[in-house]
Amino acid sequence: MAIKGLTDRNLAFPQIGNIRKGEKVTKVNAEGKTVSFPHDLKYFKVEFDAQEGDREQAFREVYHDKPTEINIRIPFNQIDRCWDPFCEAYTAGRMVARSDGEFFSYLVNLTTGAMEVVNGVNDKGEKVPHREIIGKAGKTDIKCRPVGRLKVIIPELRSYAYLVVHTTSVIDIRNISEQLAAIQYANDGNLIGVPLILRRRPKMVSTPTADGKRTRLEKWMLSIEVDPKWVAARFAQLELMALPSGASKPALPDVPEDTPETGEDWSQDEGAPPEESGAPIEAEYTDRTDSLEGEPNEPPLADLRRAAWPEEPKVSLTMAESVRTGDTKEAYLDIPREIIAKRLEAIKNTLANNHLTEAQREANELRRDVAQIILDLKI
Amino acid sequence: MQMGIHLAMETQRRYVCARCWGPLIILPGEDRQMQVVCANPARCDGKGFVTRKYAERRREESIAELWEVRSNYPDLVRRTRKPTAQLLAELGFQGGI
Lengths: 379, 97
Hints:
The structure holds two protein chains of two kinds.
Chain A: E1 15-28, E2 34-48, H1 53-63, E3 69-72, H2 79-82, E4 83-91, E5 94-99, E6 104-108, E7 115-118, E8 133-137, E9 140-143, E10 145-152, E11 162-167, H3 170-186, E12 196-208, E13 214-226, H4 228-242, H5 301-308, H6 317-322, H7 337-351, H8 358-377
Parallel strand pairs in A: 1-11
Antiparallel strand pairs in A: 1-2, 3-12, 4-5, 4-10, 5-6, 6-7, 8-9, 10-11, 12-13
Helix pairs in contact in A: 7-8
Chain B: E1 2-3, H1 5-14, E2 15-17, E3 24-28, E4 34-38, E5 49-51, H2 52-72, H3 84-91
Antiparallel strand pairs in B: 1-4, 2-5, 3-4
């Protein structure tokens, strides 16, 4: 039986049908009255809107009339936008109550017709606890029963439209909630694009009997399962991610052999600056800043230093602070600025000497860097 | 649903059909009461009303949902181009314009 008017709502992303687990069966009872009651099926009953003949035909070509498995996709990444499990009560075709099992989000007074709860609170701003029996319609109790609605896209229809899977089973609602949450968790919080299969699986379920006892009956429950091919690919990806990387880590830079360490005695090296004796150190000193004279805009101090000292220092601040003199083991940081300046000049004069070996030159360059850094600190 | 004329007019103004969200019309009923029904009974068997504002809000939300689903599943709809000759033939042109 087709649904009339469902797709006349002019929605951009419309609902085009319903997927149900059972059907209504009419029967004449012993009193001669025609009554209808729900009958559970072992397959899905899929109904399309009356105007969706093409899509229904495309569906029947793939799944026929009594499908037990349907390929589905979840339209949105947020579970609560696709899955609506609530407890609802209806009377005369109108919903009179909706709750999440704990509090009512919507409740109508059956006697007066007034809305007692709207948007989760009553007129006093308080939450109203859930109760199963809402009221009476004649002699019949109006009960709040669990209802689950799942929006799904069927990829074989090749259209941006969805169907709604309906269930009123508490077990189905719990299973679908847990399965969707587990799939989302296993896929790093993502539900989009995961190929799912909606199945009906037989399970022995404890159900109440007419005499108040309970018995186990076979029921065909809903189950949302991930396509096994996707699962295999996902496990392969997880195994790859779990492997140690090792070779991809970058190697540390090489450390020069004669890098001075804390406490090293520089006085034993050739070309080391003379011991501090208080006498003025006579040395040639070239003022490298004379090339910058006459500049219209005087460059900042850092640029001046860079011009006089073109190479980047190879010594870090931390290392320079830890360097000590070879004789007195005094930290350079503790030596007065004037003395460091004099030593720096002496080192530069030494470096100006072209007769130094490569090792001597590197050692003096290192001392020059250290002295310069300490000098800059003491400005 | 039968009601007085004023309530019927107010209902027609503020509500739409609960099934197809289409307009409502007022039909005369019994005992000077009016019936408010869906304006398209041939295509819709809806009973009941929803507010017009709700229907309009849902339509706007649906547009946003469509954009989101399109970005989530860009390859869901296969768009195939028909050949030019086929298009012309369908439009009634034979052997070119």
